[in-house]
Structure formats: C-alpha cells, structure tokens
Amino acid sequence: MGKLKMMLLMLAASVLLLAACGKDDEKSSGSAGETGDSGYDLVKKGKFTYAASGVYKPFSFEEDGELTGFDIEIGKALAEKMDLEPNPVTNPFETILQGLVGKKFDAIIGSMAYTKERAKQADFTEPYYYSGGMIFVAKDNDEVKGPDDLKGKKIGVVAQSTYEAPAKELSDNIQYYSSDVVALKDLTVKGRLDAVITADIVGFEAIDNGFEVKEVGKPMWVEQPSIAVNKDNPELTKALDKALQELIDDGTYKEISEKWFGRDLLDIDLEGVELLE
C-alpha cells in the first residue's frame, strides 16, 4: 500500500510539472517582439508595423483622420501577402531611422531612399519605386536656370533627407522643413525661399494641385526608395522582398501606383542614369 501511495504522488507531481511548463510556453509564445512561426520578430504579434512621416502627400498623409497614400497602401498590400495585419504609424522623418533602430516599428515604408550611409544602420529591400532629385522654384523666378545659379541662394529641404547634402554643396543658406509640401508652399511666398530640392514626383504633384512653382532642368540624380528593416531582422527583409515581387508579378503594385500617380513608378529606363548611393 505504501508503494502505491508513493507512485500516485510521483504521478501527480509529474502532471503538475508538465502543466506548469505548458503555461510558461504559452506565456513565452505570446510575448510581443519574439520570433514566432514566421521566423522574424515583430513589434506586435500578428501585425506588420511600418512607419512613414504622414506629411508627405501623396505618399503618406492623413485624410479624414486616417493614414493614406501610396506608401501606406503598399504597406497594407505587403502585410496581406505575409498574412499579417497592417499597422501603419507615423514618425517625424528626421528621427525615423532612429525609431527603427530602437525597434519602435518593424520597418520604414516612408519613401526613404537607400544610401550606403543609411545601410550602416538598417537593411534595405529592393527599391519599391524610383524618383529623381529636382530643383523647384517659384513660377515667376527666371533667375535660377540650373544648380550653378543657387550659390548663396536660400534653399528649402527636409532635414535628414537625401536632398540635404546636395543643397549644402550648392549653398550655405539652408532652410529646414519637416514636410516637402510646406517647403514648396513657401516657394510661393515672396522673399521666403529661392528654391526647393525634393523628389520630382512630389514637385509635379504640387503643380497638379495648383502650386505656383516650376521645375528647373532635369533630375540631378535618381534615387531608390526602399523599405528599411532593422538589421536584427534579416528574415523580415527576405519576406518583404518576396512579397514585393509578388505584388509586382500579380499586378497589384501597378494598380496602386497608377491610382496615385497615373503611371508605374518602377517602369523607368535606368540606362546611363546616375543612381544616388
């Protein structure tokens, strides 16, 4: 009888131990930021959290209290391809890379161009569109006909953008902005700015929306906006590249691009073009 009691006690202890381990496993698998079946880490389990400035129309902006735009829709389509819930958030462009490194979000889909300098802090997917860096001036400005005419002129650029360094090479009089749209608007205010350097797409969109500005010459270079991902998350970078290619192959990308711009932003002849790195 004593042996039977001992066996029953040992069996009960084993059951309790297994139950406790099961609870620990459930708690661990439910923790945000831990690697799940997908093979990559997410800030929020089951959600793809991606950041944009939210002030870069038509790429990312708020309308009726909702984030929308080309970048936002591309992010949603990518999330669907990866069987994740899209979770777009905003972060000022000046600190968006720091936010990614600090794991505030999973990726940046915010028209951030790949550069070798940025690649030291984050991994990048293949480009999800191409755009040119272009000079814009007020419509009645006939003095600025090219980059050489900007020496000593007041140039508006978004801080920490790829347009900052070229602007500094052309002039030591730089006005910083958090939004290209605001900078372009200031071009129409007499005496406020002499020029703005920004993406050709953004400038042309402003013109289509009635801004009294015009482009100067041709794009000075072509840049490669790509999706930035934390370096600790290489599997997510691979998954995004795969999902992006699927969007291109099944026509979803073209549909989104034509909705916002009337053309495919990846359909560009890059032969002989200087790519910004």
Q: What's the shape?
A: globular
Number of domains: 2
At the fourth level of CATH, the homologous superfamily of the largest domain is: Periplasmic binding protein-like II
Helix content: 25-40%
The strand count comes to 13
Total DSSP helices: 8
User: What are the low-pLDDT stretches, counting only 5+ consecutive residues below 50?
Assistant: 3-37
Q: How much of the polypeptide forms β-strand, as a percent range?
A: 15-25%
Instruction: Report the end-to-end length measured between terminal Cα atoms.
Output: 81 Å
Could you give the order of the helices and strands?
HEEEEHEHEEEEHEHEHEEHH
What is the CATH topology assignment of the largest domain?
D-Maltodextrin-Binding Protein, domain 2
CATH architecture of the largest domain: 3-Layer(aba) Sandwich
Strand order of the largest sheet: 5-1-6-13-7
Domain Ionotropic glutamate receptor C-terminal: 47-263
Keywords: Signal
Family: Belongs to the bacterial solute-binding protein 3 family.
Pfam family, one: SBP_bac_3
Description:
The chain is α/β, with parallel strands linked by helices and 277 residues long. It has two domains: 47-130 and 224-261, 3-Layer(aba) Sandwich (D-Maltodextrin-Binding Protein, domain 2), CATH 3.40.190.10; 131-223, Periplasmic binding protein-like II (D-Maltodextrin-Binding Protein, domain 2, 3-Layer(aba) Sandwich), CATH 3.40.190. 35% of the residues lie in helices and 25% in strands. Strand 2 and strand 3 form a beta hairpin. The protein is globular, with a radius of gyration of 25 Å.
